[in-house]
Write the structure tokens for this entry.
Amino acid sequence: MKQRWLSLLFALGALLLFYVLFIGSPTGLNDQVARPTASSTDANGYAGARAWLVQQGVAVRSLRERYTALGSQNLAPAGNLLLVTLPGVERFQSEEFASLEQWVRAGNTLVVLAALVDTPAWAVGRTSAVLAETESLSSLEFESPDVRDSRVTSNDGIDIAMRSNGSHPLTSGDRSLLVRSTAPPRLWFLRTPNDSFALALASEEQTHEGVLFIRLLGNGRIVVSTAASLFANDTIGRADNARLLANLVANDVGPAGTVLFDDLRQGVAASYDTVQFWRDARLHWTFAVVVCAWLLWVIGGTRLVVPRRTDAAPSPAALIAAAGGMLSARLRPAVAAREMYAQFLQRTAAGSGIVQPLTDERSTEVWNWLERQRSVSQHDRAQLKDWFRATQSGQRVPLVKLHNLFLRIDRQLAK
């Protein structure tokens, strides 16, 4: 029964491990909060921005494939704009960065909306993830002098205001920007690598540190906002957020260009082709490996014939234990105790030189001889006499303790 419970416990553990590795959400992901996708009408979504773009005659598409597929999306070679919001659900693959860089250098624009300064409800506790992803996408590095916990401090949210720096086509007419956060603004410093240059277009009002940056890359450019919810449904209509989006489209989207929302990063993937699934060579190799492993296990790891059972001859100890068990089941304790006393007295008489066989008179001599032996403790002698009287009257005595008492007295007499 114990082995069955252990098997059940390990099976549940394996099931839990499988769920965490292959099904469970990434660390810190809040599944109860809506993700910022192009079709989401929740406060975090971009349905409002998408509707406005469509109304203005701008081509809009939800990107649900990896960046390695940007070349096969039937897009114009240049004049496209890609909006990616971080942190995401789907992790980046290393080969995506090279494809994305090539796409931007061809004359396209990448807009990275990273939850660094603000803390939307869907990004709580994921600062390290968004920082690493932002630096990988933009080649710009950020560091914080005060690393603080991203705990939710207000159910109503906190407004984080930003001001534009000087004059730039992207911030033309933008005097202020505003986002909603669940925690106070966090301070981040831009650390520009030696081979990169970034221009700060806007700064946070309290810290006066940059929050909106632009970096040229080939014929394209990368725009990084350390506030992720600039264009969300509940904030795009506040301050000059909508004008910033309009400036991005006016300056970066060409006549045949398309605005892409990276919804794959937020867990919205393109539907999988079942025909392609069954034609996938990796599936065939997986089946082949499983079948080969099963055949090896059946042929080499199992016995096809149940071995015949051969009973081994019992050992001397097993025979003694069996005989003792049989006698103990049929012999009364009082009778067994009297027999044990008789053997003890005979053994003691032989050691003291008293002539055998023992009679009642000679048994008395043995008891008197024991009384004169100072090596035997007084307590053991008293216990020996008490149990002897109980045995003679037919009372039950503890046989194991009586046996140990005999052994102890024998050792005392041998000294």
In short: The CA atoms of residues 170 and 250 lie 9 Å apart. Confidence is low (pLDDT under 50) at residues 25-29, 147-155. The chain has twelve helices and eleven strands. The chain has two domains: 24-270, 328-414.
